[in-house]
Amino acid sequence: MIYTITLNPAIDRLLFIGEELVKRKTNRISKVTYDLGGKGLHGSYVMSKLKIDNLAMGLCGTNNKAALYDILTEKNIRHEFTEVADESTRECYIVLEEGVSGSTMFTEKGLVVSEFEKRNLLEKVRQKVTSQDMVLIAGSLPQNYLISDLEELLYVLKDSGCFIACDLSGEALLKAVEVGVHFIKPNEFELQEIVSKNQSLTENLEALSERVDCVIASQGEKGSFCQYQGEQFQVIAPKVEEVNDTGAGDCFVGAFLSMFYLKKPIEECLRFASGCAASKVKNNDSTSFDIEDALDLQREVTINRL
Ligand code: TA6
Questions:
Q1: Is the CB of 39 under 6 A from ligand 1?
Q2: What is the pLDDT of residues 227-259, one digit of tens each?
Q3: Is residue 89 within 6 Å of ligand 1 at its C-beta?
Q4: Which residue intervals define the domain Carbohydrate kinase PfkB in the entry (predicted)?
Q5: Is the CB of 238 under 6 A from ligand 1?
Q6: What is the spatial order of strands in the sheet that 79-84 belongs to?
């Protein structure tokens, strides 16, 4: 079983602007749509679509829980959230400009969580996770969820003996490395925050791999680098027409972990994940990708053993 833990989920509000965004001008919104937000939930979306048994956990606000649960039901995501009383799951805003590839994201800070609710989540995790499981913790932390809270959660997982994957950033990512989780996937900005500026990417990945079994440094449309079992791989992503890059990294993580969980060879995991992420950026929402398209696109992925 794979569990995903999204400590600070979101409802993404996608704002479509009819033309290019211009400062000091009234930029009219031509369309508004909603999608799932939060990196762990995106992972669960991919796993569910690939028919990998998974359960989405985490924290969510009671005020608008129906809106979040409706999206999860619509996307066939099995979930068991720890509810945070009198709080709202945040909204994140994704701005898409007509004729401009990519997107601009504005994220709210999110939940304020009580000690009681932190404990409830911890207990739920302790009761469910076993050594056979894989757990993905992904996304930002709620406002008063401290690094020490994350550390406690990571040690509960360590004690269970499960495989721990983290898609975190900043201090949270540093803590995950310090604790010695099994997988991390920093993007180029997140990597810069935790490594030495004087070393090359190759050296930094090697150094991180002393504590973390599988390290993937993602580089957007260029692809990624992976360090695993003493080997390094460069993954060159297929060229596609990018519409919305939001969630592409999450799609990669969800697809990679699904294949890894099925014990597929590392190159196969990387190739398929790269195909899924490339398919994702062709879609205008935060989550959609097409499995057939991903299978086609993975043939265009180049993997170089370094
Ligand atoms: O990666 C995309 C996404 O999960 C969006 O759906 C959006 O809600 C945002 O990231 C949340 O990011 P954060 O790092 O604040 O958890």
A1: yes
A2: 999 999 999 999 999 999 999 999 999 999 999
A3: no
A4: 21-287
A5: no
A6: 79-84, 54-61, 2-6, 134-138, 163-167, 183-184, 214-218, 223-228, 231-236, 302-305
Residue 167 in contact with residue 249, Cβ under 8 Å? Answer: yes
Domain 1-145 belongs in CATH node 3.40.1190.20: yes
pLDDT tens digits, one per residue of 54-71: 999 999 999 999 999 999
- The minimum-distance atom of ligand 1 relative to the CA of 10 is 8
How many other C-beta atoms are found inside a 10 Å radius of the C-beta of residue 122?
A: 15
Strand pairing partners for 33?
A: 14
Q: Using the mean position of ligand 1's atoms as its centre, give its distance from the Cα of residue 294 in Å.
A: 22
Is residue 61 within 6 Å of ligand 1 at its C-beta? no
Beta-bridge mates of residue 67: none
> Which position has the token pair 């699904």?
258
Residue 198 — very low, low, confident or very high, per pLDDT cuts 50/70/90? confident
Residues contacting 181, CB < 8 A, separation 6+: 154, 164, 165, 166, 212
For the chain, the domains span 1-145
The complex's ipTM works out to 0.98
